[in-house]
Amino acid sequence: MNSPAKILLIDDDPSLLLTVGDQLKMEGYEVTTVSGGDQALQSLRTLTPDLIILDISMPGMTGLAFLKKISGPDCRPRYPVLIFTARANMEKFFTETTVEGFLAKTSDPARLLEEVQRIILKYRKVTHTEPEAKLHRRRILIVENDPKLNRRLNCCFSAAGYETASLTDPANLLEMIHTQHPDIMVINDLLPGISGSSIAANLASFTTASGISIVLYDGSGLHRPDTKFPNVARYVPKQTPPDLLKAVAAVEG
């Protein structure tokens, strides 16, 4: 349930594959990049993506031809598809098809991340068939004062199947713990006015925080990876979403 979402990115522009692929990986997704429809079909022999991001204008097999190849008799694609193209004038055409989304390449990069998260979360909810007893999704509480990084972490953990809550100001932390009941807290050690390690140590005296595992992170490079802090299950000397996702998975065992 908590495995990173898999994305197949199809585009004939090498620079786009690199930049968009790296952007998605930074958000914690597993990304496979291919430069055309034929390569994409080969990848689908061993890969079951949570989302396909598809360009339309490609040499050889076009995006439309690829879309037809992966669709069933009802013309519905067998995978969620987000059209990502320079041909912005085709939006109306695709709103009348069975793809999950359409985005012009001129859009703000943040819009792409939002669409990717929206589609993946939608399908993970729809296709989840585990018994009710197994439906509990681990809840992560993120304490990060940088709004941009806070959103990135939320996106990463949500896409990996976690429920998320977040704070930019730790002043409301105890209230948030009481209302959200997180299983794990991910805390920046370099919060303004107070360190995350101090927060972790102080929480040891509160019964409402008992049983909550804490992952502490610090992107400054001031501490070694094996640095120990009181009441901290894992310390991560980085602040990238994939590294923190791995740390949380390690805490879960």
Describe this structure in words.
The longest helix has 19 residues. Helix 1 links the parallel strand 1 and strand 2. The chain is elongated. It has a five-stranded parallel β-sheet, sandwiched between helices. A five-stranded parallel β-sheet has the order 7-6-8-9-10, sandwiched between helices. Helix 6 crosses helix 9. Helix content is 36%, strand content 18%. By secondary structure, it is α/β, with parallel strands linked by helices. It has nine helices and ten strands. The relative contact order is 0.11. It folds into two domains: 122 residues, Rossmann fold (3-Layer(aba) Sandwich); 116 residues, Rossmann fold.
Oligomer: single chain
Query: How are helices and strands ordered from N to C?
Result: EHEHEHEHEHEHEHEHEEH
Give the end-to-end Cα distance, rounded to a whole number of Å.
Answer: 14 Å
Q: Please, how many helices?
A: 9
The residue-averaged pLDDT reads 86
Shape: elongated
Q: What number of structural domains do the residues give? A: 2
Low-confidence stretches: 128-135
Number of strands: 10
What is the CATH top level name of the largest domain? Answer: Alpha Beta
Q: Give the second-level CATH assignment, the architecture of the largest domain.
A: 3-Layer(aba) Sandwich
Helix content: 25-40%
Radius of gyration over all CA atoms, rounded: 20 Å
Share of residues in strands: 15-25%
- Strand order in the largest sheet: 2-1-3-4-5
